[in-house]
Amino acid sequence: MSSSEAEYVALSCAAAEAIWLTGVLNDLGVEHVEPVTIFEDNHGCIGMAKNLESKRAKHIDIRYHFVRDHVAEGKLDVQPIGTKDQLADICTKALDGDRFTALRRNLGLHDREGV
Fold first, then answer.
1. pLDDT tens digit string along 9-59?
2. How many Å apart are CA 67 and CA 78, to the nearest integer?
3. Which range of residues forms the domain containing residue 60?
4. Which residue from 32, 38, 50, 57 has the fewest beta carbons nearer than 10 Å?
5. CB 71, CB 49: distance < 8 Å
6. pLDDT for 2-19, tens place per residue?
């Protein structure tokens, strides 16, 4: 599996969670804005999500392709983000101290010693 394909599978999991949370918000009477935006740092993955005829994704299990349907329906928007700005990296990658601190700050988290 290529990195784009792996990212696409991960994107489908994130999209499923986002769509479920949208349903919870609806049930609670909280208005939300559609489409839900998900930021992705892999351009090949974004291409698979937006291109319904992508040959690259033809062998990916069909259960992951609902992302394409939601993008086509306007319920989900997959936008590119630079790798250095990807906040999820704080949870998934070994980072140097400066990068970790910058991402932590961008998430709105603070060091206990600084509080």
1. 899 999 999 999 999 999 999 987 789 999 998 888 888 888 766 666 666
2. 9
3. 3-81
4. 32
5. yes
6. 888 888 889 999 999 999
Residues, the chain: 115
> Which run of H or E residues covers position 19?
helix 3-27
Name the domain count of the chain. 2
Under 8 Å between Cβ of 15 and 24: no
State the Cα angle at 61 between 57 and 66, rounded to 5°. 80
Question: pTM for the whole thing?
Answer: 0.74
Do 44 and 95 fall into the same domain? no
Residues 7 and 56 in one domain: yes
**95 in Cβ contact with 53 (< 8 Å):** no
The most distant pair of C-alpha atoms in the chain lies apart, rounded to whole Å, by: 52
Q: Looking at the structure, do residues 27 and 59 belong to the same domain, yes or no?
A: yes
Q: Distance between CA 76 and CA 69 in Å, rounded? A: 9
